[in-house]
Amino acid sequence: MTILILEWSNPLNKSCAIHFSCVSQLFIFCSVMLHLSQDVEALRGELCRKDEECREQERRLAALEQQVQERTGVIVQLQQQLEEAAQRRQELQLLRDGEETLSRQAALPLQVKYVTKTVEVESAQSKQALIEAQAHNQALQEQLSVQRQLLRELEQQLHESQRSSSQLRQQILVYEGEMERAQGQLEAEMQSLEEEKNRVIEEAFIRAESEMKAVHENLAGVRMNLLTLQPALRTLTCDYNCLKRQVQDFPYMLEKAITEAKQEICQVIGEVSSANQELLRKYKREMNLRKKCHNELVRLKGNIRVLCRVRPVCAGETDAADTKNKVTFDPDDDAVLYLSNKGKLMTFELDKVFPTQATQEEVFQEVQSLVTSCIDGFNVCIFAYGQTGSGKTYTMEGVPEDPGINQRALRLLFSAVSEKKPDWDYKITVSMVEIYNETLRNLLGDNPNEKLDIKMCPDGSGQLYVPGLTEFTVESVEDINKVFDLGHMNRATACTNLNEHSSRSHALLIVTVAGFNSSTGHRTSGKLNLVDLAGSERITKSGAEGSRLREAQCINKSLSALGDVINALRSKHSHVPFRNSRLTYLLQDSLSGDSKTLMMVQVSPLESNVSESVCSLKFAQRVRSVEIGPSSSSRRQAESSSTSSSPTHDGVEVQRHKHTHPQRLGLFRRKNQSNLRDVGYSLLSNMK
Ligand code: ADP
Ligand code: MG
């Protein structure tokens, strides 16, 4: 351990020595001494200031003394002048005395004591002498007055000098008094400063001593601490050495850890990518399953569904009260419709009946699952069937403020494909075609009179296509409206009476939805055919002739062909007569295979239309009752198997449910619904 000895002498000339056994004690002592030396320094500064003040006073004193000396010089000069003036006075006095003597002598009468010689008194010589004496006298007189004047001035100066010298003396006395007083003050201040200095030094010394004592005490504590800290220091050193070794090993360990981490990450990435592959595989499987389920659900509902919509009585038509009794609905079963015909109540059962108050939205909700299935690549046909004026165009096209299935379907497709983004990229294209008298017209082409042909694809796929058919890609409602406007315009330009013409021709809106999944590479293509059929009313063949007869034959042919095709498809006949009409030939792709068909049979509520309504409903009934496969609908057919003929448009047959009790039908239907539900659940559990 180091012992430090510090010696110094304080201002009281006391010799001091302190022994320090550790550096920290020395630090504390030094800080105390620093404190003291700062005090002494301050006192020294004060002393210097006082010395400076003393010197200033001395300087002032010297200046005063110099002034006194100067004043003394002036007094000496003045005294010299005074002496000179006195001398002059004496001289003047002498002159005065001479003058007086002269004047006295002049006043005395001339006495001749002795005449030694005879003089001529009034001789010229004496006269001359007298004149000269008088002139001399005159000059002396003048000199005397000048001297007197000078004397007076000198006396005045003397008085002033005496006065100023007495003033100066007084001032000197005042200065001397001030000086004495200042000196006295200075001495007293110096004395008090000296005393204060000594006192401060004394106090500082006492304080230093007491602090030293405290420092000594601290030192003892520190020593104790040091003793306890030494083992801790040893362990710290130990730890430090250990850490040092670890730090030396760190780069190697780090490298090792990085390599291990890399390996782990690679392994995890591999696992994740294989999991991703698995997920992708599952996703594809689920997508297929979903598609199958959807398809199955639609199939269970029947690949060919027949709905009926009864339009309301429009303003200006026959009495509403009368017409209401012709068409009635079952409040418990929305699949049943009653028609009063010639006093008999006919009952028709379809997949769903829309009453007069049904909105466009309600109708669309029933068909929207079919519409979306074309996103999954299915072909769909929706037909509006019925006599002219039954509401086919209203259901399909609607009115601008309340659009029908056509526009709603496209809107739904837009929103459905946008939901599938970004995985799927879809392109929606539309074409508009009219079939009139078995000829095809391109409604979106530049020339609306141009006739189109249906051809087989040369690639051997068996697919049909229409060369020259115009297609527009649509992405928004605005696009749809533009396309519809163009179609309507072209349809109108080719005929004289659009209303009549449109009721004698079929209008087709063909929507193609082509999708591509960039992550799986899947491609889909589905077609949605929205068909506003020509009026189904019968024309008395005998009455019609010429073009009217041809129109009637063509319409009859195509609607019958449609019934035959549907019949053949549902009966799974090996031959389906698609080629029997342009309509079925064009829609061949969309009617066969996995395709889905919906027939919307439009019925007018008017009494005058009852017989046509009966025909339409019978046609619908037949389309619906031709059933194949194990679906619930087939059971329904088995129960009422008396009819199996084709739903030929013209071949109207007696309605087989004519006497069926409505409630019984309702029960039957509910049973089918529960079957549907069961199948749906089983599909769902399969998916899980
Ligand atoms: P079609 O196309 O079968 O000849 P329309 O669709 O032209 O018949 O309908 C004939 C008339 O009945 C039109 O004035 C139409 O607006 C009206 N109409 C048809 N269905 C409805 C309905 N559901 N609600 C209101 N009016 C309808
Ligand atoms: Mg119409």
Automatic annotation (TrEMBL):
Localization, UniProt: Cell junction, Adherens junction; Cytoplasm, Cytoskeleton, Microtubule organizing center, Centrosome; Cytoplasmic vesicle membrane
Bilayer disposition of the protein: Peripheral membrane protein
Low complexity composition-biased segments: 631-646
Basic residues: compositionally biased ranges: 656-671
An MF annotation (GO) of this entry: microtubule motor activity
UniProt-annotated binding residues for ATP: 386-393
Annotated segments matching region Disordered: 626-671
Coiled coil: 54-102, 137-203
Keywords assigned: ATP-binding, Cell junction, Coiled coil, Cytoplasm, Cytoplasmic vesicle, Cytoskeleton, Membrane, Microtubule, Motor protein, Nucleotide-binding, Phosphoprotein
Origin: domain of life: Eukaryota
A cellular-component GO term for this protein: adherens junction
Main localization, broad class: other
Every Kinesin motor domain range: 303-626
Biological processes annotated in GO: microtubule-based movement; system development
The family this protein is said to belong to: Belongs to the TRAFAC class myosin-kinesin ATPase superfamily. Kinesin family.
Function: Minus-end microtubule-dependent motor protein. Involved in apically targeted transport. Required for zonula adherens maintenance.
Stated name of the protein: Kinesin-like protein
Originating species: Cyprinus carpio (Common carp)
